[in-house]
Amino acid sequence: MSFFQMAKTVLSSMFKKPATLNYPVKPREYDPIVRGHIEIEIEKCIFCGMCQRKCPTGAIKVERAEKRWAIEPFDCIQCNNCAESCPKDCLHMHNTATPANENRDLIRDARISVDAEDNKDS
Amino acid sequence: MGNRTIVPFGPQHPVLPEPIHLDLVLEDETVIEAIPSIGFVHRGLEKLVEKKDFQQYVYVAERICGICSFMHGMGYCMAVENVMDLKLPDRAEFLRTIWAELSRIHSHLLWLGLLADAVGFESLFMHCWRLREEILDLFDMTTGGRVIFSVCKVGGVRKDIDAEKLKKIVEVLSNMDSSLRSITKIFLSDTSIISRMSGVGVLSPEEAFDLGAVGPMARASGIVVDDRLLGYGAYPHVKFEVQTATEGDCYARTKVRINEIFESISIIKQCVSLMPSDTAIDVPVKGNPDGEYFARLEQPRGEVVYYVKGNGTKFLDRMRVRTPTFANLPPLLHTLKGVDLADVPVLVLTIDPCISCTER
Ligand code: SF4
Ligand code: SF4
Questions:
Q1: Best mutation site among A81, A85, A92, A98 for ligand 2, i.e. most ligand atoms within 8 A of its Cβ?
Q2: What is the ipTM of this complex?
Q3: Domain boundaries, chain B
Q4: Could you read off the pLDDT of B264-323 as tens digits, one per residue?
Q5: Which of A3, A4, A9, A16 to mutate to test the interface with B (most CBs of B within 10 A)?
Q6: Which stretches of B82-216 are assigned E, i.e. beta strand?
Q7: In the CATH hierarchy, which top-level class contains the domain B41-359?
Q8: Which CATH architecture has domain A33-96?
Q9: pTM, 2 dp
């Protein structure tokens, strides 16, 4: 048994730099493999629906006829299954978190391919 | 005989990160009985197995618990792999073992922090979690996730750790060693901590055996049980000692967990040096599971049992988990009898309760 065991650790900590980041001033750097959110290169997508079938949470909806690909980003659990199964390699996992958003619907329908938009108008 | 009073403990209590409720029947300041009630965070994950196909269910299994998430995924995969007769490549087994042992270190450090907090040692708590953060950074770097890794899949693992990152893991663990030793020494020798823990909640070996204690709870009472001795994963290739103590009190449970941290570090270092150069990390999975299997593995809190039953379709018939905290509740209720009310939080904490696991 002994007293003041902690004193040594506390004293030496006083001369070390903090273990935490001075966050907003110094942003955190993430490793490239960190799973943050999914993004799509819509030009490459062939709307095959593979990602939708592989997604464990049903976050992705693909409408083949309308050429529409949509994701509900707050349903996504960042498992990377869709990106691994996409035959065209058009889904990518980015290492930053899903951006905060007030309006869920806005994100859900934000990715309509240019084609689909044109078809709708005509 | 004094008056009997019933004091409710939980479901919201400062030492409990998760909800469990105990009705403590007191006589003066002494607990004479504890009546538990659970069910505050039941999520019906076992039922969900009928809705998600067996490969997708890995992601659900991982979310049973936020601390042993990797080992839940691993236990589920092991059970399904055994039903399907899959033989994993060695490298996958070694990678799983490394992640499992890193999880054990992170879980024990988290627990040490909570314990320091429960005995009122705030600065020690901060230091334990500072060290734990370094392990979480290793997870970030090797799996892409801090808490939920999503690297286990039926038939292997989804990510490899390259030589450079393996070296980094060993480096971080070696650098941690001296601060780890000075921090854990405080738990084992500081007078104020010892006086809170020594002789509190003694569980004799016979009681531990009869009540079915598992993991560090049983080992602290001198019972040598460790599922890693069963030889799953890469454990047959590495040397390790099962850490036990004889006192059976809160102090012994702390000592066992602290020694396990160092044992885990040694296992990881051995795994890295023995890592097979063959680069295959998974085997193709064909067909659907048909049959049943019990998989057992050693989590930081003790033995977890995974039961799966497949019916030849891609949806499993049944999946059942018996988690270590569930097994450790009867010993806890037994040891609570006769302790002071003020010692209850520390004693509850020393079984390392994980209520989300227990209730699934
Ligand atoms: S799998 Fe790829 S190509 Fe197919 S619909 Fe999804 S994103 Fe498009
Ligand atoms: S990362 Fe996983 S959960 Fe998210 S959209 Fe892709 S498959 Fe679905």
A1: A81
A2: 0.76
A3: 41-359
A4: 999 998 888 888 888 778 888 888 888 888 888 888 888 889 898 888 888 888 888 888
A5: A9
A6: 152-153, 156-157
A7: mainly alpha
A8: 2-Layer Sandwich (3.30)
A9: 0.86
